Structure formats: structure tokens, C-alpha cells
Amino acid sequence: QDETGAYLIDRDPTYFGPILNYLRHGKLIINKELAEEGVLEEAEFYNIASLVRLVKERIRDNENRTSQGPVKHVYRVLQCQEEELTQMVSTMSDGWKFEQLISIGSSYNYGNEDQAEFLCVVSRELNNSTNGIVKEPSEKAKVRHLRRC
Questions:
Q1: What would the pLDDT profile of 8-59 be if each residue is shown by its tens digit?
Q2: How many Cβ atoms sit within 10 Å of the Cβ of residue 19?
Q3: Under 8 Å between Cβ of 124 and 72
Q4: What is the spatial distance between Cα 31 and Cα 11, in angstroms, rounded to a whole number?
Q5: Which is more confidently placed, 109 or 106?
Q6: CA dihedral 84, 85, 87, 88 (to 10 degrees)
Q7: 2 pLDDT exceeds 70?
Q8: Which molecular-function annotations from GO does this UniProt entry contain (predicted)?
Q9: Torsion 80-86-91-93 (CA) sign
Q10: How are beta strands 117-125 and 97-103 bridged, if at all?
Q11: Nearest Cα to 98, choosing from 132, 137, 141?
């Protein structure tokens, strides 16, 4: 305690910011530059049990994410006509996501009208197996009523 009655706590101020913000609004916010382990040490020093749990959960989640490796994607390019585009995108399933639409013009006639053609790029995350071998999903993007894929 100093001469004014204030308590002096000799701790690293770098890691006190997340502690103070947690006490202010109840959310755990840690800058990317800070080591979560340092915030954990401070939370344990100040005996803030709820914050200790949150930081430990975040560390565990980050370790799990790191052990799984980077997320990998498989991409597919589907060719379709303008009239088939909406149906193709709406019938994608099993984790397939629309990425990009590329117009390749109107290279042929269908009936009396020119038909615009597109390349539709879709992606899906690859599943990681337990032995570390990455396997491509066996399901294909569901595309119905397309003449050319």
C-alpha cells in the first residue's frame, strides 16, 4: 500500500488488459499478439475462476484446431446453362458451397434463343481421418437436370 492508500500490484500490465475488459463486460477478448497462457496466469493470480475456465477452453480449442491441421478444400467446376443455374445452386448439398460464377458467353443456340453458359465453382472442406490421411468426400455435389457437367 502506498502513502495514498492505493494498493500496488506488481504484475505484467501487458496481460492485465484482457482481465480488466473481462471484469468490465464479461467477454474474453485477447489480442492476437498476446499469448493466451499469459492471460491464464493473470486470471489464476487474481483468482477469477470463470475467466480461468474461458481461457482454458480457448487454449484447448486452439490446440484442437492446430492438431487437425489447416483446413483443406476440394473445388469442382460445373458447366451449366443460364436456365439451369438457379436449380443447380439450390440443389447443392452435403457441405458444398457456391464460390464463383464465371460467364463463358453464349456459344450455342437452344431452340431459337442463344443460351448463356456459365462455369460454377463450388467447394467443400476435406474430411480429416484419424490417422492423418486426408480423404476427399465420396459424395458429389448434387446437380440435377444438367446436360453437361
A1: 888 888 999 999 999 999 899 998 889 999 999 999 999 999 999 999 999 9
A2: 19
A3: no
A4: 18
A5: 106
A6: 100
A7: yes
A8: cullin family protein binding
A9: positive
A10: antiparallel
A11: 141
CA distance 95 to 139: 10
CB contact at 8 A, 82 and 116: yes
Q: Judging by beta carbons within 10 Å of its beta carbon (0-12, 13-18, 19+), is residue 141 exposed, middle or buried?
A: buried
Give kind and range of the element (H or E) at residue 84: helix 82-90
In three-state secondary structure terms, 93 is coil
Residues 91-125: b if buried by 16+ CB within 10 A, e if exposed? ebeeebeeeeeeeeeeeeeeeeeeeebbebebbbe
C-beta separation of 30 from 58 below 8 A: yes
Counting beta carbons within 10 angstroms of the beta carbon of residue 42, is it exposed (0 to 12), middle (13 to 18) or buried (19 or more)? buried
Q: Is the pTM of this model over 0.90?
A: no
CA distance 89 to 81: 12
Between CA 48 and CA 46 the distance in angstroms is 6
